[in-house]
Specification:
Mean pLDDT: 93
Largest sheet: 8 strands, parallel, barrel
Bound molecules: flavin mononucleotide
Low-confidence stretches: none
Shape: globular
Structural class: alpha/beta
Oligomer: single chain
Radius of gyration: 21 Å
Length: 385
């Protein structure tokens, strides 16, 4: 059984430490001494190093540390993954680029041609994280006021058309959102592999769309039994349609030589979070079922970091320390590897891992945690027999 490991590329800047909140890598915060990409030189001027150069370093580190590729997230405040990916492809050899995008914002035929060109240029290193949006102001920011379930209806049709023009010579389609007459990519482009489709979303509408189109169903980390149930439901739905669904988990790790060191970093990080943010966390109003499931993991009044420990090595306060999901794994290298093995035993076929700072942690997790995987899995399987 091959388990693929991806790393996350932070397209909205990065912190130099999980202990402090400052985005001191990138230019999303005002530049100060010690900032990286861009930084300031001895005379106080911008040193000419761009954030894309830093992302390239992370991609190269992750590639060297054994990761298959990287997730490139897409939010209103990030750089654009379609632009970042081909730039990074030139800086790496085998690293695959998981472009996150909301299908509704692109014409599916144009997206197919764009992707086929990318496949040609990168030797087939393009994959997708299909996201459908969390509603609220982040959605209207894009000029999109469709309801939650209509957005998923549109995603499904987008993928029907995207795959249709790629695989059929004379493709016509008449849907609610898209119509195509006598479509089909040029043979040279259609010859490329369709990018693997990873699919995120926790609602019923998401699961239904994923069952039809996803190669991998992708979830944030949730308590393990809850996640195992979710994976089982997705796998069942896809099986009912005659397919086989692989599942993947996107999770942050704080992996240190000892468990005490890992929790010390979390404690210091938590102590730097202001009262207001501890109460409300990060993130605005949303109709996202996935975001609601993450919020539900976190008590509203956490006075100590220990109040947010939801299970051994699982901490529910990551969204206080940086944007993104609440739950992540904290522990020694061996414990982190053991938790990943637990997830594999519960149906995970692949992972997107992340750590702060993304550059140094790519090396650390690649060197210290990934080689320990499998040992625990063998023990788990033996115990189950
Ligand atoms: C692993 C993962 C990664 C995601 N990445 C993004 C992203 O980069 N940009 C975004 O706008 N939404 C992202 N999302 C949000 C989902 O795609 C989806 O829009 C949201 O969960 C609402 O759908 P739901 O109600 O089905 O959960 C991500 C979700 C997951 C689980």
């Amino acid at each position: 059984m091959t388990i693929d490991f991806y790393w996350r590329l932070p397209t909205h800047g990065c912190h130099s430490s999980i202990r402090y909140g400052a985005y001191d890598r990138g230019d999303w915060s005002p530049l100060a001494a010690g900032n990286i990409a861009p930084g300031i030189d001895a005379s106080g001027a911008d040193d000419g190093f761009r954030y894309i150069d830093h992302l390239a370093e992370i991609a190269r580190a992750a590639e060297g540390a054994g990761f298959t590729g990287g997730l490139i997230p897409s939010f209103p405040n990030t750089d654009d993954p379609w632009v970042i990916s081909p730039l990074l492809a030139r800086a790496t050899r085998t690293f695959r680029f998981m472009i996150a995008f909301q299908p509704g914002f692109l014409n599916p035929v144009h997206a197919a041609r764009l992707s086929a060109s990318l496949q040609r240029a990168t030797g087939g290193r393009t994959i997708f994280n299909i996201i459908t949006g969390g509603g609220g102001p982040a959605q209207t920011w894009w000029g999109d006021s469709f309801s939650h379930d209509d957005r998923y209806g549109r995603t499904t049709e987008f993928l029907d058309v995207f795959k249709g023009v790629w695989t059929q010579k004379d493709f016509s389609y008449r849907g609610r959102f898209y119509e195509v007459e006598h479509g089909g990519l040029a043979p040279l482009l259609a010859h490329e592999d369709i990018p693997e489709i990873w699919f995120s979303g926790s609602s019923d509408a998401a699961l239904q769309s994923a069952a039809k189109h996803a190669d991998y169903y992708l979830s944030w980390l949730e308590p393990f039994d809850q996640l195992a149930d979710k994976f089982a439901r997705v796998k069942e739905r896809t099986a009912a349609l005659g397919g086989e669904q692989k599942c993947a988990v996107r999770v942050d790790l704080v992996a240190r030589p000892t468990e005490e060191e890992a929790w010390r970093d979390i404690r210091i990080g938590f102590e730097h979070v202001g009262e207001e943010r501890r109460r409300h966390g990060r993130g605005g109003p949303t109709d996202s079922v996935g975001a609601a499931r993450q919020q539900a993991l976190r008590p509203s009044e956490a006075k100590r970091y220990e109040d947010l420990i939801v299970a051994p090595n699982l901490w529910g306060g990551f969204n206080l320390l940086r944007g993104g999901p609440a739950l992540g794994i904290v522990g020694s290298y061996e414990q982190c590897a053991a938790r990943l093995d637990d997830l594999i035993a519960r149906g995970a076929n692949a992972f997107i891992l992340a750590g702060t700072p993304h550059l140094e942690e790519a090396w650390r997790v690649g060197e210290e945690v990934l080689p320990l995987l499998g040992r625990n899995r063998d023990l788990l399987l033996a115990a189950a027999e």
